[in-house]
Amino acid sequence: MMDNKKSNDISINFLQSGLDRLERYLEDYSETLEGILKETVKNTLIAGGKRIRPSLFLICAKNENYDIDYLLPAAASIEIVHTASLIHDDIIDKSILRRGRRTIHNTYNKDTAKFVGDYLFTQSFSLLNSYSIAGIVEEMSKAAQLLVKGEFDQLKTKKDFYQNEKIYFEKIFEKTSSLFKVSCALGGILSGSSQTDIKNMEKFGEYIGISFQINDDLIDIDINNSPDGVGKPVGNDIKQGDITLPFIYAFNDISFRSRIKSLMRKDSLSDTDMQSILKLLTDTGAIAKTREKFYSYLGMAREVASLIDGSERKEGLIKVCDYIMQGLEKGHLQSPKS
């Protein structure tokens, strides 16, 4: 089972202090609930994770008027939306475990899991309503809509071996990058940042979110990673019919496509099938091309971070880039689905 201690290894003093306060806030919130709702929320919302989205929010909100008490409801709202989306993801993916614990639908049933996820979504907007700043609820609403649309689009394209790179990036913007983008934007809005800075923060969040998803694609096909280390078995995405970026690149190779098409049409893939597929995938050069794309988006994030006002914000965002870069190179950066 994974350690529940919350630390995202981004070494910034004000950030770690803020995340500690966020944990206490979320724990206090879970204690206000009752029965199954209390138990399920405690086993999801405060059961682990890197808190990268609220971290981005707090970094973007950092200025001379930084007030963690003022920012906590929004930080909690961001993490709650993320947790709600994971609960719904688990139902669709039929996942057995989440952060080392049995998923809600696996412990109870799909209806219970669906209602818990829906309840958390409503709580997120309730928290944002505590601010008297126009636009922040609308921004989160747009992100939530994109999260749901991303799930639908992923369902529509399962086992679609001919989907192109454009479709892939549209899906990951919806499913992953949109919440990173709004996390940064809310930090800028609540700190009274200029429109220029807010736009650059949104770009940073978008690029970082895409980098995170590409990282997840690479984790999924890394036979050196264990399920205990990354939270899912190797090849899990492709076994579920989700065509990730390395496979989109590999399917351009006629030899690869012809050799594995019969395997991919099977109702389920064995571990032996998966090893054969990953060996063929490596030979196409698709993994190297995927890593290049990862570094490209991370480089764009670093570049836009340098344009944002405030030395602490700029330093914090660049440290996020470093953290992601080091995680990929060490092979253990945590999945964005955690």
Topology:
Layout: H1 13-31, H2 35-42, H3 52-60, H4 68-93, E1 97-98, E2 101-102, H5 104-107, H6 110-128, H7 136-156, H8 165-190, H9 195-220, H10 227-230, H11 236-239, H12 245-250, H13 254-264, H14 271-283, H15 286-305, H16 311-330
Antiparallel strand pairs: 1-2
Helix pairs in contact: 1-4, 3-4, 3-8, 4-6, 4-7, 4-8, 7-8, 8-9, 9-15, 9-16, 13-14, 15-16
3D structure, described in words:
With about 350 residues, the protein is mainly α. The chain has a single domain, classed as Farnesyl Diphosphate Synthase, CATH 1.10.600.10. Helix content is about 70%, strand content about 0%. It contains 16 helices and two strands. The protein has helices at about 15-30, 35-40, 50-60, 70-95, 105, 110-130, 135-155, 165-190, 195-220, 225-230, 235-240, 245-250, 255-265, 270-285, 285-305, 310-330, and strands spanning about 95-100, 100. A two-stranded antiparallel sheet has the order 1-2. β1 and β2 (about 100) form a beta hairpin. α4 runs antiparallel to α6 (about 110-130), α7 runs antiparallel to α8 and α8 (about 165-190) crosses α9 (about 195-220). The model is unreliable at about 1-5 (pLDDT under 50).
Concise summary:
With 338 residues, the protein is mostly helical. It has helices spanning 13-31, 35-42, 52-60, 68-93, 104-107, 110-128, 136-156, 165-190, 195-220, 227-230, 236-239, 245-250, 254-264, 271-283, 286-305, 311-330; strands spanning 97-98, 101-102. A hairpin with a 2-residue loop joins strand 1 and strand 2.
